[in-house]
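Q: What does the assembled structure look like for these inputs?
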Amino acid sequence: MLRYAARRVAAAVLVVFGVTLATFLLMHLEPGDPARAVLGLHATASAVATLRRQWGLNSSLPVQLGHFLSQLVQGNLGKSYIYNVSAASLIGGRVGQTAALVAVATVFAIIFTVPLSALAASRQNGVADHVVRALSVVGLALPAFWFGIVLIEVFAVRLHLLPVGGEGSGFGGHLECLVLPGLTASFAMAPILVRSLRVGMLEVMDAEFIAVARAKGLGELRVLFGHVARNALVPTVTLLGLNIAYLIGSTVIVEQVFNLNGLGSLLLSSILNRDFPVVQATTLVLGAGVVIVNLATDLLAARLDPRIRLR
Amino acid sequence: MTAIVGRYGAGPAPEGPGPDGAPVVAGKRPRSVLAYRARHSPTLIIGATITLGLVLVAVLAPLISPYVPDHQDLYNILSGFSSKHLLGTDELGRDELSRLIWAGRTDLRVGILAVIFPFCFGTAMGTLAGYRGGWLDTVVMRAVDVLIAFPFYVLVIGLIFVVGAGTTGIYVAFAVVDWVVYARAVRSTTLVVRESDYVAAARTGGLPDWRILWRHVLPNTITQAVVYLTNDVVLVIVAVVTLGYLGLGVQPPTPDWGAMISEGQEFLTTYWALATLPGIAVLITGLGLSLLGDGLADVLRPQ
Amino acid sequence: MNGPVLKAPVLEVPVLKVSGLTVSVGRGARRHVAVQDVGFEVPAGGSLGVVGESGSGKSLTLRALMGLLPPGVRAERGVVELAGEPLPFTGPRARSARRGRLAMVFQDPLSGLDPVHTVGAQVAEVPRRVLGQPAVASRRRAVELLRLVGLPDPERRSQAFPHQLSGGMRQRVLIAMALASEPKVLLCDEPTTALDVTVQAQVLELLDDVRRRLGVAVVFVSHDLAVVRQVCDRLAVMYTGRLVETGRSADVLDHPAHPYTLGLLEAVVDLDDVDHMPVTIPGALPDLAHVPSGCPFHPRCRFASEDCAQGVPPFRYLNDRQWGAGEGSDGEGTDEEGSDGEGTDEEVTDGARGTACKYPERVTAG
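A:
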C-alpha cells in the first residue's frame, strides 16, 4: 500500500509540474503585450520598455520559466500586473470561497446520489428505477449555468427564500449564499454519479459472493452494507474524484452566475485582463487542487479495494 | 503451419456460434443481431427520433423558420406568445422561435464539428498507446493526465483566449482538450482486446500490426468510442452554449442559445421566456442525444 | 406414490429428506418446470451424488434446498426435512431454519469470495454474525477452520485477500466457510469444476475426509461421472429436471438401468480402454418449455419403441432379480419372490435402485 501511495504521489507531482508548464506556455502564446495593456494606448514606448524589463518579459522563454520556478520554490507565486499585490494574497482571499462551494456541492451530490442509486438498484426495472434513470439523463443535458439562473429566479426572486447572490455575512449568511450555487454545481455531477453507483450496485448484487454471503446465513442488512455497498463504493469513489475535478473547473461558471468572489471568477477576470502572474498562479492552485483531490480518491479507492494495489 | 497462417491471412476468421446463438466473426457482430436489438430498444428509438427531429429542424431552418433571425419588429418588443410571433419576441423585436431554430442550427453544427477531431485523434492515440505500449504509451498517458488535471473550463477559456473568441477558438480548444477521454477509454479496451486469443493468434500467425489493428482490434474498441461520442456531443454542446453565455463562444450576430440566455437574463422579470426557452432547447437536444447514446450502448454491448 | 425418492437404507435415519420437489421458472405463459418431483434421502454422514448435464435442474435443486432461488423461480411443491424438521422455501424462517444445519459450497471460488475482505474475515463472519460469538473467538475459529481444510500456514493466510490465493486454496476457503456453521448437511454445487485435475483430487479427498471426521452428510452435484464415483456412495441421475435413475454408485455406473446414464458413460473418454471412442448422445437437450411427450429422453434413445412416446413412464424401484439375463446381481438380492416391482424392504435396503425407463433390460442387454 505504501509503495502504491508513493508512486501515486510522485506521479501527482509530475502532473502539477506539467500543468504549470502548460499554463506558462499558454500565457506566452497569447497575443498582446501585457505591459502596454496596463499602461494604456497612449503610453510612451520607453515606459512600455521599462515595464517590460521590470517584469522580465524581454528574456527568452526558458529563462522566464526558470525564474518563475525558482520563485515558486521559494513560495512566491508572483505579483499581479494589475493590482500590484502578490498573487498569493489575491488567491488567499478567495480560496476559502471556492473551497466552501466545492465542499457544499460535493455534500449535496452525495446526499442525492446515494439514496437514489440504492433505490433504483433495489427495484431494478421498476418505476423508481426508470424515473431515476430518466432524471439522470435529463441532468446530464442540463447546462449548469442555466439551471442556476432558473434556481435564482424561482427561489430567490419569486419566492424570496434564498439570497440572489453575493457572499452574505456571518457563518449562517455564508451558508445560505452557498445553497443555490452548491445545488447548481452538484447537479452537474449527480447524474453521472447516480448512473455509475446504480450500475455498480447492480453488478455487485448479481455477484456470486453475495449468494454465498446469504448462504452463510448472514442477515440481509449485513449483506447489503458489509458486502454490496462496500464493493459498489470503489468505482464510485474514483468517479467522485474525477467529478470533483470537473467541479473545481466549473466553479468558473457558477461563480459568474451567482456573483461569488472565488478563484474561478478571479481566473476569468485575470485572463481577460492579461494579468499573467495571477493567471499562472491561479491555474497552478486550481490544478494542484484537482491533482490532490484525485490523489486522495485514488488512495482511498486503493484502501477499499486490495486488487488496485497491484497495478 | 501454412493452414493456420492462411486462415487468418486470407479471409475472415473461423466462425462459430457466439454466446447468444448468433455467429461471431473476428469479434464483430453481424448486422442481423444489431438490427434486432435496435428495433427492440425503446431508448434507442426515442433518442434517435428526437435527434433526427432536431437535425431536420436545424438543416431545414431556412425553410421552416417564420422569420429571419435578425429581423427586428420594433413595434412588438418583448411581446408574449401571439399568433404573429408564436414564442414572442426579444428586446429588439426579433422573433424568438426563429432565433431558437437558427441558434439550434449553429450550436448543433459547431458541437458536432468540434467533436470530430477529438474522436478521431483520441481513438487513434488510445489504440496505439494501448496496443504498442512502451514509451508511446507513457508519453500519451502523461499528456492525458496533465490535460485531465486542468479543470476543463479553465483550459478551454484559456485556449479560446489565445486563439480568439468565436467558432475557431471553440474548435481549437476542444481539439486540444477533448481527445483525452477517448484516448483513455479506448486504451483500456485495447489493453483487454490485445490479450484476447484471436489477437494472439493473429500475431503469431505473422499478421502485420496495422492489419491486426484494423481488422481485429479496432472493430471492438470503436464501439466504446462511439458510445462515448454520443455522450461527449452532449457535453460539447452544453459547453458551447456555456461559452456563448460567457461571451466567448459563437459571436453575434450569429444566434446562439448561450448568448440568448445571457441577453434574456436581464428580462427575467418582464419576459422570462427569453432566458428559459433556449435552456429548454438545450435540454431537449441533450436528452435526445443521451438517449441515443444509451440506446447505442445497449445495442452494441459485447454479449 | 408421490414421485421418485432415492431412499436411505432402512436402518439408517436420513438426516435430509426431500420428496416431490418441483421448481418452476417464469410466470404465466412463459412458465416451465425446471425440476419435477425430485426426492431423495441422505443418511447422516452419507454421500449422495446428483449427476446430469447443465440444464438438468441439478443446481436449481440445490438452491431450492438452500432456500436461495433467484427471483422468478419458485418452488411449487415439495417437502424438505432436515433431521425431521421441515424447511420452508421462502419467508423469514427460510434462513433461520437452515442456519447451523445446512450449508453450501459454491462452484466458482473466485467469484464466490468477496474481493474486498480478507479470507479470514469472511470465514470469521459466520461464527461472529451467524453464531453470535465475540470477535476474537471468531477469528481464532476461522484460523482453526482454515487449518482443518488443509490450508498451509493458516494464520498468515487468513490475512490474505482472495485474489492472492490459488484456485485450490480458494475452494478450501469456501469449504471452510460452509463448515463454519457446523452444518449437518453440506451441499456442493460442482465444487471442483473450476479447478484443474490435480487440485480436484485434493479437494475431493478433503470433502471425503471432512465427511468422515465430522459426520457431515454431503450432497454432491456434478456433471463429471468420474468425480462422483470417487466421492459418493449413492447416485441420482437427472435429465430435464426429473430423476431418471437412482441407486448405489457402483450399481448405477457399472450396470446402468436407463439409456441416458448409458449415454453419459459412453460419452466419457476412458483411459483404461483406449480403443473405446467416446460416443455422443445424438440430438440435443430439449428446451425445458417444450419437453417431449412421454419419456422425455425417447427422441434421443436408441432403445426407444413407439410406446415410449405415450405417457410418462412411472419411476420404478427395481430388485436385481427383475432384470433377467442373470446380470448385475449384486449379491444383496434375496430369495424372495418380490417381483411385483416395488420389492420388499430388504431389496430396497440396497439403495433404492430405481429407474424411470420402461425397458431397463434393453439397456443392460445393449
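Chains B and C do not touch (no CB pair under 8 Å).
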